[in-house]
């Protein structure tokens, strides 16, 4: 089935309202926004493999001076590659509006630098849905016209599956999350996200907590302690990643024996690497992403039109069709013999993380820093 990649009504009806004078004044106060609070906001954590925030902001500013168009932030790697093919290029052809994407790491401190730019400033950003509320609360993002609450400033438009990948040359059978922790039988480094999201869920899965009980457990102090105690067992063997692209690169470069990775970073790689790694489909996790309009672009018709277009079902389906996710059972059995029944993915609970991200990020960062 073909899906239309363009629709006209959004061009005359903005989907986001302009900022009030109070909100516009709020952006200037961001200069006092502390680095610690930025990290606690939970939009990502610093990693030696991630470009420093100020350097990446200067890179975008330098690029903006030489390239005219609508500058946006998205995630480098397979995500941006597919977006460019099925979303950005078609939009350019239909509207003659140039889209200039830049990779970023999801850190709110980085977003602050982009928000303060005035010359060809970044207009829109792809973020996890659990992060959009923080962006609005800090007045970095404009609010959605159709949303009267204070808990959201964007709509889910993309889902990405994250699964465990492993080097098939090192395993006779398909490993589970519990095998992920078995460093005695399978020595080597494990790649995990340097963020409580995904990581705490995986720790509980590895200790036998059923998928439908994950957030019941994390809603209690005992369940949180349970997850951190499980992570403590693996601490010396963890290779941390901060972006989807980095997760794939750690595995394909041999930096880890196995790891949590977006499925598309493995299925969309070169054929040798695709055959080299298996994917544990039975307990994969699904993360929702949305698009936010930066506060400085709240009155920019081009930014409003572009994000409204991305949020339409046709564009959501176009990305879903292009993103390498769950293959056919024939292909799955070719990649991982005797795979059996594949249950639906475990959806990461955005409501839970909206309410608990700050406190769990603070504890997670303290745990990571503790030698």
TrEMBL record:
Alphabetical UniProt keywords: Signal
The protein's name in its UniProt record: ABC transporter substrate-binding protein
InterPro entries reported in the protein's UniProt record: SBP (IPR006059)
Coiled-coil intervals, chain numbering: none
Provenance organism: Acetobacter syzygii
Name of one Pfam family that matches: SBP_bac_8
Transmembrane segments: none
Keyword tRNA-binding included in the entry's annotation: no
Statement: the UniProt record of this protein carries the keyword Signal: yes
